[in-house]
Design a protein that fits this description.
- By secondary structure, the protein is mainly beta.
- The chain folds into three domains: about 100 residues, no CATH class; about 70 residues; about 60 residues.
- Helices cover about 15% and strands about 40% of the residues.
- A five-stranded antiparallel sheet has the order 1-9-8-7-6, with helices on one face. A four-stranded antiparallel sheet has the order 11-13-14-15, with helices on one face. Strands 17-19-20-21 form a four-stranded antiparallel sheet, covered by helices on one side.
- β19 and β20 form a beta hairpin.
- The radius of gyration is 28 Å and the shape is elongated.
- About 20% of the residues are buried.
């Protein structure tokens, strides 16, 4: 996961300023400077947009920068939380187009959340992740938590995350075993099929459960009553604890 998210501005940010350096032949050289208001506005658009989602307090750039292709300068972004970080701005041509990068080692939560969401896509619709502040430190070795979420289940489970290398490569793991309750009910109907091949109705509720080893979830099985499904081990094997009806 790269922290060097970049934005190439599609509009020229050049502002022709006036005049400098007359030689003995009265030739006039015009100096072109970037329109810094547009640079700051473009940085805001990127950082507050869907690719980052930051809540900005300010973006401050130098008062004046003369356009020189390949030259870099810095701007400073400040979040409402008080966090500050540096933007590297590269002038990519003589027209005033620029390329923006984050200069500090940062983590964008949107990017991490998408990785987690994609990883759980096959387990069921609606699974997502919430990783806190939109812009965070990307220091190697830093550990923190995200929450696995589902519709109506805003804190379904805890995900432990650790930044393992440069450019915010990271590893993460859900605490516990994710169990889609609809699939569990279907599997139990197969497990408790009657001798004639018919299957009982099974209701385990809606959504998902995240179980630790030794934890259980209750399901109602037709003609059997409540059956608790207990997670036996970290590999996802379960035991059925049947409460017989009187």
């Amino acid at each position: 996961m790269a922290h060097m998210d970049a934005l190439r501005l599609l509009v020229s940010l050049a502002l022709a300023t006036a005049v400098c350096a007359c030689d003995v032949n009265s030739n006039v050289r015009v100096v072109r400077a970037l329109n810094m208001d547009k640079v700051e506005a473009a940085a805001r658009q990127w950082l507050e947009g869907p690719k980052v989602g930051a809540k900005l307090e300010s973006v401050k750039c130098p008062d004046k920068v003369v356009i020189v292709k390949g030259k870099h300068f810095n701007c400073v972004a400040k979040l409402r939380s008080g966090m500050e970080f540096t933007l590297d701005v590269e002038m990519t041509d003589e027209k005033g187009d620029v390329h923006l990068n984050t200069k500090d080692q940062l983590l964008f939560a949107v990017t991490l959340e998408k990785r987690i969401r994609d990883a759980f896509a096959e387990d069921g619709a609606g699974l997502d992740a919430s990783c806190g502040d939109r812009v965070q430190s990307g220091e190697v070795g830093r550990a923190f938590q995200c929450h696995l979420t589902a519709p109506g289940q805003p804190q379904l489970g805890v995900i432990d995350v650790k930044i393992t290398g440069a450019q915010n490569t990271s590893s993460w793991k859900l605490r516990g075993n994710l169990t889609p309750l609809g699939k569990l009910a279907s599997d139990m109907a197969d497990e408790f099929a009657r001798p004639d091949g018919s299957k009982p109705k099974v209701d385990c509720g809606k959504g998902f459960a995240v179980l630790q080893v030794g934890e259980s979830v209750a399901c109602k099985v037709e003609d059997m009553g409540m059956v608790r499904v207990k997670l036996r081990d970290a590999e996802g094997n379960v035991d059925f604890l049947v409460r017989t009806q009187k």
